[in-house]
Design goal:
319 residues, alpha+beta, 2 domains, 5-stranded antiparallel sheet, 3-stranded antiparallel sheet, 10 helices, 14 strands
Length: 319
């Protein structure tokens, strides 16, 4: 079946947040309260959902989970990655007493991210040592990236959305259960819409101000709730964690495009829904960034243009 790829939130545009035309409905968080405890941090949030109904939710997250997530993403840096790689290189080279390694910090390269080195010693030993030391460099990069929930694609380091969703699903369980509690007997699509409106109402922040954002370019789900702000991909990953409990058995996927990210979930398609396809499966689009209150299946015109032009990548979030 040829499904039309539509479902625009008319009057809105998408850069990172959705800019609103006068008639578009803006997400609105009515209040946010947070009380830090030694074991748990208590939250109470009030907001308007897509039907302009006031919602009120209370939940508690493990304070240790929040602190650990914050620490993990705050500590990541290219410089600390270089330190880690350099240590691994020196350890690898130490296996050959007659081989000397000279390491140089320089502008980030395609594969070395700013670590250059050369080996000095007898040619027969260099022939043996060189591939092993290069392998040590590649392995060190991979270990560091994996530890900090990043993935390396050529010369670019990205957030590992799949790994982050898997890591923080359990930490977000209390919010998931609280949303289910106020959803009552709502059907699956309505439950998704409720969770979507919760994240759209969280103030949008591109996380470019390192003082204001706490030092990260991505807010992992527990940190997003603690900060009460976040950008498009931070909100999308957090929503994915929640949907795993709200819609058990459904798969979700991140769709990334230039300057933007959305989430998508494999609920049944309805007339007018925007969607993406991956491995033969249709995922219905969700725009969690806000501040536009885009219902399930509706996207901003700029997002729709990327979808129509197939200018996006899809990252299924593993069960």
């Amino acid at each position: 079946m040829d499904i039309p790829r539509r479902g625009l939130l008319m009057g809105a545009t998408a850069s990172l947040a959705l800019a609103l035309a006068p008639r578009a409905v803006a997400a609105r968080q009515l209040s946010f309260e947070r009380r830090r405890g030694p074991g748990h941090t208590q939250f109470r949030v009030r907001w308007f959902d897509h039907e302009r109904r006031e919602r009120d939710i209370s939940f508690a997250l493990d304070t240790g989970e929040i602190e650990a997530a914050t620490k993990l993403f705050r500590e990541f840096s290219l410089e600390s990655m270089r330190d880690y790689i350099e240590t691994a290189l020196r350890q690898a080279a130490s296996k050959w007493s007659e081989v000397k390694i000279e390491i140089e910090r320089k502008a980030a390269g395609v594969s070395s991210f700013g670590i250059g080195y050369r080996l000095l010693g007898p040619p027969p030993l260099l022939k043996e040592a060189a591939p092993q030391i290069d392998r040590a460099l590649q392995q060190a990069q991979a270990r560091y990236a994996q530890h900090y929930l990043r993935r390396i694609d050529r010369s670019t380091i990205w957030v590992d959305y799949v790994g982050a969703a898997r890591r923080y699903m359990r930490a977000m369980w209390p919010l998931s259960q609280a949303l289910l509690g106020i959803a009552g007997g709502a059907d699956e699509r309505a439950r998704i819409g409720l969770a979507l409106s919760f994240f759209q109402a969280i103030p949008y922040d591109e996380l470019t101000d390192r003082v204001r954002s706490g030092g990260y370019d991505f807010a992992p789900p527990p940190t997003l709730l603690d900060l009460n702000r976040g950008d498009c991909d931070s909100k999308a990953v957090a929503l994915a964690c929640v949907l795993r409990a709200i819609t058990p058995g459904r798969l979700s996927a991140m769709a990334t495009m230039p300057g933007h990210a959305i989430l998508a979930v494999d609920v049944p398609w309805r007339e007018g829904d925007a969607w993406v396809r991956e491995q033969g499966r249709v995922f219905i689009a969700l725009e969690p960034a806000g501040p536009a209150m885009a219902p399930v299946g509706q996207v901003a015109p700029e997002t729709a243009r990327f979808l129509d032009a197939q200018t996006f990548s899809v990252w299924p979030l593993a069960a």
